[in-house]
Amino acid sequence: MDNIDLQLTLSEVTIVDLVSWIASGAMIFGGIVPYIPQYRQIKRTENAEGFSTYVCLALLVANTLRILFWFGVHFELPLLAQSIIMNVTMMVMLHLCNRVTQLNEMSTKRRAFLDFDHRYFWKWTKFRDYVQFMFVFTLIGGYITYVCLDFPVYVETLGFLAVFVEALLGAPQFWRNYQNKCTVGMSVKMVGFWTSGDTFKTAYFLINKAPMQFWICGLLQVGIDIAILLQVWIYRKNVHPISKPAKPI
Fold first, then answer.
1. CA–CA dist 100, 46 (Å, integer)
2. Separation between Cα atoms, residue 181 and residue 239, nearest integer Å
């Protein structure tokens, strides 16, 4: 009887462990899945107009802050790994968008990060300018975190900013759709994956008792995803973006 109970216990532990490994794997790699259809669409059409690169900015900043937050609060390693992989993915997306934009842009004027011109922030000509910005941002953030690591208020604020910025990652896409009154060029599959992934992620945070900042901002993220899906329905008959008025000379 004892042997049967032991075998059942081992079987249950194995199943629990297997589910845990699958959930961790989904957390690590699931975040990049929504960007695969968007990447393929941009590459196929050679047009990045429908995708807001500010989504990349939001995720790069959010995940860099989350990595720095880990040094103050050692949350689960799958979440740390997810942040590192997401940063790499966003740089790949930026590289493609930058290349496609340069192919379609008529202007020959170079806009560089080191010009420190706020009018062209995140609209730089070369991909290396985005790399330079992220290097400077990480260096400054890392130094401040190193100095303030013993201050709980700073650490908790850092954690909140990390998940809050990530929660707003859909906001630039929502705004672009609103301005264009059109969602053509945006991958609906990407937003669908966002919604399902963010729902899973929020549930994962709740089940694993992650810091409160994580699941509160997860709920906000799901709300923005649903709002973008509503835009797809509202603007379903619009096949061309609204033309922007020409600036006076």
1. 6
2. 9
* Percent of the chain clearing pLDDT 70 (strictly above): 85
- Say whether pTM exceeds 0.70: yes
Q: Which helix (H) or strand (E) holds 192?
A: helix 188-207
Contacts of 70 (CB under 8 A, 6+ apart): 80, 83
Per-residue confidence band for 22, with pLDDT thresholds at 50, 70 and 90:
confident
Measure the CA–CA gap between 89 and 169, rounded to whole angstroms: 15
CB 51, CB 185: distance < 8 Å: yes
Query: Mean of the pLDDT values across residues 196-204?
Result: 83
Residue 52 CB neighbour total at 10 angstroms: 22
Q: Which two tokens stand for residue 34?
A: 């929504």
Rounded-to-10 torsion of CA 169, 175, 180, 181: 110
CA distance 68 to 158: 8
Tell whether the model's pLDDT for residue 119 goes beyond 70.
Answer: yes
